[in-house]
């Protein structure tokens, strides 16, 4: 049987090796073709000056470029050069805006009239709501009921920016269910709506489109590290959930095979899956997952042997996802990216350590990369770049709770609360 | 390949042509238990269903509306597994041919685990190689006549099409209101059994009316030989009549039947009776729409 001809983007494929593809309901296929066409014209070929406008808005509204900062005390602690890529300084407090603004702008160029997006912890939702307000687009965010209850400030931020927030009650009421529901909305309204997916996941061309918007991280970092040190790093660390900050940080370095790329996943409380309960107490998909299809793509997944997707877990809501971008699965499979993981506790210590030593409160997501650095710095070479994907102000409540119940070496002493 | 697949000895196609206009029913296997499903399938068969789709539950049913999502949750909570599903089908004896409707990951994961393969000396096969053949082989062995995978567009369907050909199973594709031109041709060259015409954009779920999109889709499909059946939102005999009148060869009803199961909770006898009655109503509607048996079709 002949292979049906398919639209392929400029770098040739709808897949990354055996990962990726377009596993979606038929009703969405024409929209994916339309998006692929828009991706090629506006993003890859800068038609109508799309990329120029995107970069200008990311500068004036988004605050790019972000600094690459030498972490003086970490460098001293680990006896090597440690640099931080400060995505926490992007408007909104995380790298998420890079993608959200790009896609909302693209939707405008495509003549779409409405934006829908999913959000887990609320970071992508707030970034999309900001971008939609900035570009004057009606916006609806789907968010799991559980997440709404534990991320109230982010829900309020989205509402303040004029977005509707639709609660999703199915399943455990978290990110996975929110993506399902957003896909259902999109399947109903596809003709005038664009789905701003929040990571390098989903059907082709989303993983490539999102990578294109996020790879500015590594592009800037590469130039900046050369300027500051006259050389390229020995290793780059980034946390990995869905993987958008990961691929954003890594993409520009992939061809430099001497540079080690470490994707640091959430090890949670254990790396084992509890089949009977359908729960993985971690989100270490690249490290422990098996191949399957979820949310439109073939990729690595946390699933039971029957193929049911299990509930993932991480102390960091932004890493809490049972899938991962297909391109990262491919880069891991080919050995270019090394998947590693650290448990919740190491991430919490990483959070406190950076706050204490450098005066930077990192997101709990990014804290996983810092936790890995603490435990493995000897294997990372003389010059290390860590992507600080976001700031941790949003995580203070979680960190307070989690710190109280643990004996964390890097946590501050808070007996001041008891002194009246 | 086109001609072979649309005219070969397909049990499904034959069931539609012989019972024209046909009633195709869907329920979720394991909702609320596999034992109940056996009763319900037999009731639908008695009531006049000409084809029966059985949903094999998957945890992320992105094409389903709230009704079938809830049914899938009930089935998963009851512990429904692929092997339990196939054992159910092994024992079913219905006049209507059976199809399985499930999501692609369920097909990919079915088969011996790494540990089993290792013990059988087959460990050199990579753990992660995606292979749908064990599922299709087991489906054929259980006596299923066809497969519908709502998250598998024609572009990704070659491996499944090949496996289905090998085992004599039909592979049904969904034609959406947005499907046109080359994509429609591609689907129609891959489809067998019947073309599942999606009546409207969105997810599954009972609706109060029949959409214009249905008429447009049926017009686009006129030139193709394969039978066309319309689903997504059909809930009453009058809808069935209208759809058949519009030129469809069959109607597909799911959520309206799943609603009946949900309303009755545990205890399958009243639910089975209600399903049988509903199937009979829908079948009468379809026949009325086709000008069979009923001289003056009621207008909705």
From TrEMBL, chain A:
Gene Ontology molecular functions: tryptophan synthase activity
Pathway: Amino-acid biosynthesis; L-tryptophan biosynthesis; L-tryptophan from chorismate: step 5/5
Keyword Amino-acid biosynthesis annotated: yes
Modification N6-(pyridoxal phosphate)lysine occurs at: 96
Keywords on record: Amino-acid biosynthesis, Aromatic amino acid biosynthesis, Lyase, Pyridoxal phosphate, Tryptophan biosynthesis
Cofactor(s) the protein needs: pyridoxal 5'-phosphate
InterPro entries listed in its UniProt record: Trp_synth_b_CS, Trp_synth_beta, Trp_synth_beta/beta-like, TrpB-like_PALP, TrpB-like_PALP_sf
Ranges in a coiled coil: none
Family according to the record: Belongs to the TrpB family.
Subunit structure: Tetramer of two alpha and two beta chains.
Biological role: The beta subunit is responsible for the synthesis of L-tryptophan from indole and L-serine.
Protein name: Tryptophan synthase beta chain
Source organism: Natronococcus jeotgali DSM 18795
Organism taxonomic ancestry: Archaea, Methanobacteriati, Methanobacteriota, Stenosarchaea group, Halobacteria
Automatic annotation (TrEMBL), chain B:
Active site (record annotation): 53 (proton acceptor), 64 (proton acceptor)
Pathway: Amino-acid biosynthesis; L-tryptophan biosynthesis; L-tryptophan from chorismate: step 5/5
Keyword entries, A-Z: Amino-acid biosynthesis, Aromatic amino acid biosynthesis, Lyase, Tryptophan biosynthesis
Recorded GO MF terms: tryptophan synthase activity
Function (record text): The alpha subunit is responsible for the aldol cleavage of indoleglycerol phosphate to indole and glyceraldehyde 3-phosphate.
Classification via HAMAP family: Trp_synth_alpha (MF_00131)
Protein name: Tryptophan synthase alpha chain
Organism expressing this protein natively: Natronococcus jeotgali DSM 18795
